[in-house]
Amino acid sequence: MAGTPDLFVVCKKCGSEVSPYITECPYCGTRLRKRAPKIDRRAGDAAPRPPRRAVRPTLSPLRTNEIPGIRGDPTGRPNATYALLILSLFGFLVLPFVTDADVALVSLGGDAWKYVSSAFLYPNAWYQLAVLLTMGIAGWRLELRHGPVLVIALFIACGIGGNAIAAAAGQDTLIFGAPGAALGMLAAWALPDILRARNGVEHDGDLLGTAVLAATVALMPAVVEGASAIATFAGLLLGALAGLMLLRTTDVRR
């Protein structure tokens, strides 16, 4: 190829074969040329690539079990569920230092902040364990499936909203905890799996364990003062309605 140096040159003095890219013979020191030939670095390169076009970021299509604006992450961390559980644990630690009537929800016309505080306070450890275990499992699975927004919305609607419904009914002296949120999340999560089981399709959760958790939380108002039956079953109903809406985005046949 024209312009390409030879593989080697012969020193005229000692007759040794040397590289064509040196100026002096390494064997006898004879000057071969004033400067080494220039290396053509583009000789072995491929044809120049066209400039890359900037790729605009786009969202992937919605997958099964997703609704617009609420996208789950099966490999993510259920941070919203963690936050609700941690706040409830802190509430249990604070309760011994205050009077129950000062922080519990008593009537519909009471202090507005008690609607929130009462949902994080539990006067009984077994009551708290039953509710938080159920809410932790159901909230975790819901958050991985649908994202954190749904978990927070269900806690507000089924937990705080269920307590507000109980306060409006006026059947409870003091209202503590969020059993409605626990059963509401459980219903929203389990409803698609129940329909899959009826269709003979493999499902995500343990329906027998789900039934045991639901029964445990549902029985708390019978044995724990401050656990409202109205709040519990109002939250269950609201969660079931949310589950029915989620069924519109869920293929229960596979």
Produce the secondary structure layout:
Blueprint lengths: L8 E2 L6 E2 L60 H16 L5 H4 L9 H5 L7 H22 L1 H22 L9 H20 L8 H17 L5 H18 L8
Antiparallel strand pairs: 1-2
Helix pairs in contact: 1-4, 1-5, 4-5, 4-6, 4-7, 5-6, 5-8, 6-7, 6-8
Largest sheet: 2 strands, antiparallel
In CATH, the homologous superfamily of the domain at 79-249 goes by the name Rhomboid-like
Compute the number of strand runs: 2
**Tally of DSSP helical segments:** 8
CATH topology label of the domain at 79-249? Rhomboid-like fold
Distance between the termini: 65 Å
Low-confidence stretches: 57-62, 64-70
| Mean pLDDT score | 78
Principal-axes shape call: elongated
State the CATH class of the domain at 79-249.
Mainly Alpha
Strand line-up across the major sheet: 1-2
Structural class, please? mainly alpha
The radius of gyration is 36 Å
Reported CATH architecture of the domain at 79-249: Up-down Bundle
What helical percentage do the residues reach? 40-55%
H-E string: EEHHHHHHHH
Strand content: under 5%
